[in-house]
Design a protein that fits this description.
Blueprint: E1 8-13, E2 19-30, E3 33-40, E4 56-63, E5 66-70, H1 75-89
Antiparallel strand pairs: 1-2, 2-3, 3-4, 4-5
Length: about 100
């Protein structure tokens, strides 16, 4: 019997109090910290368009017992973590190289 896919859904409230819903695709822990790769989920499933998924990579930080997901400010750190997620998720997604 085939195993049924059940996505990990994450709800994030931004600084303005607006809730955003994501599917957590993967998580990585390195010497630099913990990171998650998220895929935004539209409010209406009919809005899903093939090939328009944008992978969001955030750093997991904890402060006073609370967990926060924060943007990665350091470019070198972002590149390193982005490549790590790309390698891990390559089988699931078709990544396009960015054109400069």
């Amino acid at each position: 019997m085939a195993e049924e896919y059940t996505p990990d859904i994450v709800s994030i409230v931004d600084e303005e109090g607006k809730e955003h819903i994501f599917e957590e695709l993967d998580r990585i822990e390195t010497d630099s910290g913990r990171y998650v790769a998220l895929l935004p989920l539209p409010e209406n499933p009919d809005q899903i368009v093939e090939g328009e998924d944008e992978l969001i990579i955030l750093k997991v930080e904890e402060e006073k017992g609370e967990t926060y997901l924060c943007p990665i400010e350091d470019d070198a750190e972002f590149e390193e973590i982005g490549r790590a997620f790309e390698e891990r998720l390559a089988e699931m997604f078709d990544f396009e190289e960015e054109q400069e």
